[in-house]
Amino acid sequence: MPMASDGDALEQHEKTKSSQTAMPHVDEPGLNAQAVGVRVNAGQINVVKSESSRSLGQIIRANVFTLFNAIIFIAMIVVLLTGQWKDAVFGCIIIVNTGIGIITELKAKRTLDKLSILVESDFLVHRDGRDELISHDQIVLDDLLWIRAGEQVPADAAIVKDYGLELDESMLTGESRTVSHSEGEEVYSGSVAVSGLALARVVAVGDDGYAAKLTAKAKVFKKTRSDLNEGINTILRVMTFVVVPLCVLLIWTQLGTVGGLQSAIQTGLWRQAVVAAVAGVVSMIPEGLVLLTSLNFAIAAIRLARQQTLVQELESVETLARVDALNLDKTGTITDGGIMFSELRVLNEDERREDLEQRLVDVCAEEQPNATGKAVAEGLPQIHPSSQVSQRIPFSSARKWSAAAFTDGSQWYMGAPELLLDRIEDGQSPQSQSARERIDTLIGQLTDEGSRVLLLARNMDQDTASPSSDSHFADTHELPGSLHPEALVVCTERIREDAKSTLAWFRDQGVRCRIISGDNPGTVRAIASKVELTGNREPRAMDARQLPDDIEELAEVLEHVDVLGRVLPEQKKAIVQALHARQHVVAMTGDGVNDSLALKEADLGVAMGNAAPATKSVAQVVLVDSKFSHLPDVVARGRQVMANMERVAGLFVVKTVYSALISIGVVLSAIPYPYLPRHITYIGSLTIGIPAFLLALAPNVSRYKPGFLKRVVAFALPCGIATGLSVLLTAWIIPFEMGWDLSNRADLAELRVVCSIVLFAMGIFVLARVARPLRSWRGILLLVFAAAGITGLFIPFIAKFFELSMPSGTTLLATLSALAVSACVFLFCVWLVPWALRIFSRRKMTR
Fold this sequence. Notes:
The chain has 847 residues and is of the alpha/beta class. The protein contains 30 helices and 21 strands. Strands 8-21-20-19-9-16-18-17 form an 8-stranded mixed beta sheet, with helices on both faces. A hairpin with a 4-residue loop joins strand 11 and strand 12. It starts with 5 loop residues before the first helix and ends with a helix.
């Protein structure tokens, strides 16, 4: 370790010296060097492990060694072994799709690894009878730790001596108000000292600390659930059972078409047989759908980024479309965390409102006003501070009041009502008691409405004093013996301007919104009413301390609750689990560390841009500019992705269906495979791949309904069967009519051209069905790709590479006949059979 310079040592000495003289006297010496060394050797130091739950190797293995990659990779290797590299171009999709997956998860890993609730800085501890500054990770168990204003508590500790300490625990509990702690009480790492001072004994360090435990739970990797990916994986699993035996049968059949195994090896025609078999296998795998899903998610994420919305997991774009329950954190989501001046409730009718407002502005006009002072200045911009203030006592969280002395001899105080009302004039008289009760009742009503209330009072002892009699005013810092309440200063949390309209949008879309907060239930309910959380109906509120522990019971209670207050971090997570038990797709918004566990548990975690780093790290979506109004755009984008992907997924599954059917027909009839892998690459790109990509980007706000795979299969079966039958009929009938010998390479090549043209035409028919309505740009899209497919036959390079050509003479007539038959088969399978089934079903129901 490098030695510190003399300048550094001097600076450290001065810091320690100044800190030591500034701190109150401590009776006990604290840990000595030997005790510290024992704890360091025992590992009882404030160091937190930083690794996430997935290593780089695990991420690469998870994305490389997939069922999809295995099938495509083996097929590609087999084709390359035959020397027919042009038929192996389909393998490039492995690189692209795997790369997207690895990059996305590595980004998530880096985010999780950086996750930290605690701010690393130097802290003051009391050791060997003196105070010294040490780094965050040098704190040990049982250390005597000074908690000073402006510092974050670095480790869990029990207060030994309190000097007016107030903590902001909103990062941990969600409670937006500062909290006072007395001696013997425990304070948790992650909270921030707002004011005052305390000496505390460290009771938990490192991974045992409260903040570290929250971080560890938040770091657990959780893959976002995707209906699209699950549907694709289901298809792949089914096709695995079909592909392996069918591949063996195809190879055996294709070897038979070239004279058997021995002849195929002697003549080299085994290569042709293997390539033909691979054409059947590859066609059954919806490889384009896997790639298109990843690309579409990525494009949606890019579009959302332009709207100040960061998507950290691509699959979460789809989840947006399925959300039907939205849990909202109050602070940072509905409110922006600040307060605003609401009104001045006059208590003394003898005083003019204008005069009281002037006094209020003057009392609040400190050099560095607190949040209330700023809110008053913003709420009463027409009133400017006067020059009549002679002295002032600034606001202090320890005192909970501020005061100003004026040149006319009066003294005005503003602060917590419970403190100032204790000094009410003639406090024992019936009139004073009655006034006190009336004011207490009014304060209770305002508090229940979600307001924060302060009292503005005048010192009655100074009314007859001379202006010079307050010479010791600023030195006493004590409340006078007789105060007269003049007005209540009513402040409310500042509600986001977009909150009401955003909640209205979610109500119209059938998304159930609940506000879940660590604040007082009455306060949260009042704010929920202001933003019309439940429309015209009054929100139903509940104290989370009354919630049942059983998940099923909790799920039942949540059906009848709109607002929950006093919610603990673990309860927020349990609430999400209870909603999951009722099959809800849950989104959760938040900005504090107390929200991180629930965001992790939810199907979709949404963090505000001004949220704690830990919260943003575990969220799938971050609203960078913290605007709640972006959420409808986010959900709409998710619906676009899901609705359009469902539309185009049918195209890929159609290919799977007809490829399986054709392969079975080829095996049963022992004919050469009717097209090559390069043919399906050409046809698939023009009738499935590129059109699907463009259709997936089209506007679409249809709400997603469960049953993605069922609907896709219902569309794909009739279209796939029609296409498969058309190609098989062509492969069976045309050679017989034309007198072709399929053992002859020229005749086989000509048959494959005819079958490819039939397959292309059927692909255009299916595309037309998917792209409906065609009286729009979709109709133009269809014509463009139909024309592109035909034009390619006349371009020498394309025709040669893909072994395609335009038929002529009797072959052209046979092709036109095959196309006519195919059109009839398509109408029969796609229109007539479903129509007949519907009629049959209706008659059966009427019986």
